[in-house]
Design goal:
233 residues; disordered N terminus
Length: 233
């Protein structure tokens, strides 16, 4: 629910902010093109090795052959709301988002940073104060959003085991690029953490944000028992 709400707000904002956004970051080099597949796996080979269970042994199944990667989301809404969203047709957006999800080579992930940086320039103006976004260079010249754009394009959750602040979603990343105090945030993500509001704070320069997505909690609270997820709706 929260991710959907954020996507709706951010995408509507981006669509209407083309003339009033902060930055003039130009899109970087085109991200790598990756063909994606709807398949999540393939059939395994025949045969296998013979085990020693029972008098005649049991044939162990072969490992399945995996298909193409179809998703790599570490942080909610980043790909959907920030990757190649400005002035694009729905088909082009879908192509860009599929390329992001299908890119299995981690060394290519930074190639999406240019598209993310362009969107960050517009989101910086959410609080009507340009240049206060996390890790920006405090003005609106080209390249000011490249650092944060590259960090977000590497779409993984970062955990600092030496951190002392448990409520540190995106905190470890911001410490790494020098946008906040060092070695405090544990980073990662908790089931009860308000990751959408935290993202608002980072992309708009507000900590804590003075506005939110209006959703303060999930419909159902996380379970206290393993695997700690809420019951299905």
């Amino acid at each position: 629910m929260k991710t959907i709400s954020m996507l709706a707000v951010l995408c509507l904002f981006i669509a209407g902010a083309a003339a009033t956004g902060c930055g003039d970051d130009e899109p970087g080099p085109a991200p790598p093109t990756t063909s994606s597949s709807s398949s999540t796996g393939g059939s395994g080979g025949s045969g296998g090795t013979t085990g020693d269970g029972g008098s005649g042994g049991v044939a162990d199944p072969s490992a399945p052959t995996l298909g193409a990667q179809i998703d790599r989301m570490g942080r909610p809404a980043i790909n959907t709301a920030l990757n190649d969203t400005l002035g694009k047709s729905e088909a082009d957006k879908n192509t860009a988002h599929d390329a992001w999800n299908g890119e299995a080579d981690t060394s290519n992930w930074s190639g999406f940073g240019g598209a993310v940086s362009t969107s960050l320039g517009f989101l910086d103006s959410l609080d009507a104060n340009c240049g206060n976004q996390a890790a920006s260079c405090m003005d609106t010249t080209a390249g000011c959003y490249a650092t944060l754009g590259t960090v977000l394009a590497n779409d993984v959750l970062v955990l600092n085991t030496a951190g002392t602040d448990p409520a540190g979603y995106l905190g470890a990343e911001l410490e790494f690029i020098g946008a906040s105090a060092e070695n405090v945030a544990k980073g990662g993500r908790t089931l009860s953490g308000d990751v959408v509001n935290s993202t608002y704070g980072v992309v708009a320069g507000l900590d804590p944000p003075s506005f939110s997505d209006g959703v303060d909690a999930p419909d159902k609270a996380p379970s206290a028992d393993w695997p700690f997820l809420a019951d299905a709706n």
